[in-house]
Structures are given as C-alpha cells and as structure tokens.
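Inverse folding, one chain.
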C-alpha cells in the first residue's frame, strides 16, 4: 500500500500546538478532549517509536498533568507501559513484525482542571493504533513509517470520591444547629459541618435525604429475595418450582430410614430412595431367614409402648 503524504490531520494538529506555544503564558485551563490526538514524533524506524501527546501542553497547571501510557500488540501483549508527569512525549524500542499492529492507549488526568466548569476533574482517554505504511517521496523513492490511525480523545471524567477519609476529624467542634443536608453517601447530617468533618462527604444537598420505601419479598431463602424491600408484599417464590435449591439451604434427603439419608441436609429435596420391602413374614433382620435372631429382636421389643 502506497501513500503520497501523511494524513492532513496531524499537520493541522502540529500547527495548532505551535500557535499555542507562542502564547503559552495565556493558556490557563484546557481544550476540549475530542481535539486531543496523538502525533508521531519519531516513527520512521522499524523498532523505535516516539509519540507526542498535546494534552500536557494545552492543559494547565502542567505540574499536575499525569499520562498513563500502554502499548500492546495485536494479541494484547504489553510491549511498553509507563506513567509520566508533566511530559508530552513517550519513547521506547520494541521487537514487532512490520505486518503487526501496535495499539496505544493513554489516559490523561489533571485533578486541578475542571473543563468548562465541569464538576469532575479532567480525564481524557485517547486510544489509537499504528501500522507500518509505505510512502513515496516526490522523486519516487519509497520509505516506511509507523502511521497512526487517527483516534481522538474521549472524556472519561468521573465524580470524585464521595467520602474523603482524610477530612474526617471528630475533634472539630460543629455547632448544634439543625440545618439538615443530604450527603452524597445517602446519609442525612444535621448540618454541613457534620457532613464534612464527621461523615467526610465531599458533596451534599440542602435538606434531608428522601428515602423511598417499597414492598417486595423479605424472605432470605426465597428465589426473589429483595434486601432493599421495606415490607413483605406477598410476591415471594420458592425452590424448587421457581428456582434451584441454593447452596445455603443444604438440600438433600432428610428421612433417616432412606438409603440416601443425608445428615447434613436441612431441607428435603425429594430425592430420598428406599429399598424394596421384605416379603418374608417374620424376617425382622432382613436376612431372608426366620431364625432365632428374629425371635430375639421381637423379645427385645416386647412390652415397649409405641407412641
């Protein structure tokens, strides 16, 4: 496969980064994640590669930029992985057939940046791939280069942790003022001070938490047991009709005179089996002979009151 020039997209991105470089003192936040894409810095060598990520250059403050890189082959084997702080370029050597594909994933985070007023800190994931392509110089000479597929960034920012253990401090004196707030953990606190220093929650809303109660099956051994149900609504279904016997029930044969009696079984599952009854009248010991032992068995039980 022959191509005349590298994709126009990377030329535009390089020009964009150069323009920002001339005014870097004015960059104070970030640009949209979808505008982030990787650029081949050094990709013309078969076993060495250098990739540039514009994120740290356009996302400020730079000292809190963290990039988690991972490179794998087509079978998922990790060829290189590293975590860099305030660094835009990653380089490494590898041994990979030119017919294979090199997959790259990089997660760029910055806990100091909240893009466009987002309530979540910056997190941008770029996934791309490189293949060895053949290009042609104007004079007709061919050359090879690892070429990116053109992947762009995807915003993967998530809510910060609801509870911050480090801010919990029972020694802090909170005023005895009842101004309830509902913490992000679903707990109602008397005021925002208690939410912060006793609960350690990172966010809350004014007012008590609204608890919605509903009915359901409250029997733990039922097939459709619902631990969140506030009251029993008669909807429970039970094994073996509605579901298989759960291991916690220890189902088995509970009849002691059965051939397959299971002394560990708590619930009878209908699996008990019995041998055929004796047809020899008076054969109490089951040896198919009416003898002295049968008489002794009868005498030993003589006079016993049956319930």
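Residues assigned per position:
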């Amino acid at each position: 496969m022959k191509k005349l020039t590298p994709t126009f997209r990377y030329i535009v991105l390089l020009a964009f980064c150069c323009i920002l470089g001339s005014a870097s003192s004015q960059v104070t936040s970030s640009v949209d994640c979808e505008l982030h894409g990787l650029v081949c810095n050094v990709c013309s060598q078969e076993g060495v590669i250098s990739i540039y990520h514009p994120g740290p250059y356009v996302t400020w403050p730079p000292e809190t930029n963290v990039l988690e890189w991972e490179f794998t082959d087509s079978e998922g084997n990790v060829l290189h992985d590293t975590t860099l702080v305030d660094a835009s370029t990653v380089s490494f050597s590898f041994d990979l057939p030119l017919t294979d594909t090199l997959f790259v994933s990089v997660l760029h985070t910055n806990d100091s940046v909240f893009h466009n007023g987002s309530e979540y800190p910056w997190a941008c994931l770029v996934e791309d791939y490189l293949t060895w392509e053949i290009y042609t110089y104007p004079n007709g000479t061919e050359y090879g280069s690892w070429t990116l597929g053109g992947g762009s960034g995807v915003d993967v920012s998530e809510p910060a942790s609801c509870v911050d253990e480090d801010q919990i401090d029972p020694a802090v004196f909170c005023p005895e003022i009842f101004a309830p707030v509902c913490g992000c953990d679903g707990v109602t606190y008397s005021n925002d001070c208690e939410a912060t220093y006793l609960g350690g929650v990172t966010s809350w809303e004014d007012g008590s938490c609204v608890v919605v109660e509903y009915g359901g099956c409250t029997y733990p051994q039922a097939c459709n047991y619902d631990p969140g149900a506030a009251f029993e609504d008669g909807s429970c279904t039970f094994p073996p009709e509605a579901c298989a016997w759960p291991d916690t029930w220890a189902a088995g044969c509970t009849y002691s005179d059965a051939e397959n009696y299971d002394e560990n079984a708590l619930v009878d599952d209908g699996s008990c089996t019995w041998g055929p009854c004796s047809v020899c009248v008076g054969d109490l010991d089951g040896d198919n002979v009416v003898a002295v032992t049968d008489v002794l068995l009868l005498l030993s039980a003589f006079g016993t009151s049956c319930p």
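Residues 216 and 229 are 5 Å apart (CA to CA). DSSP finds four helices and 17 strands in the chain.
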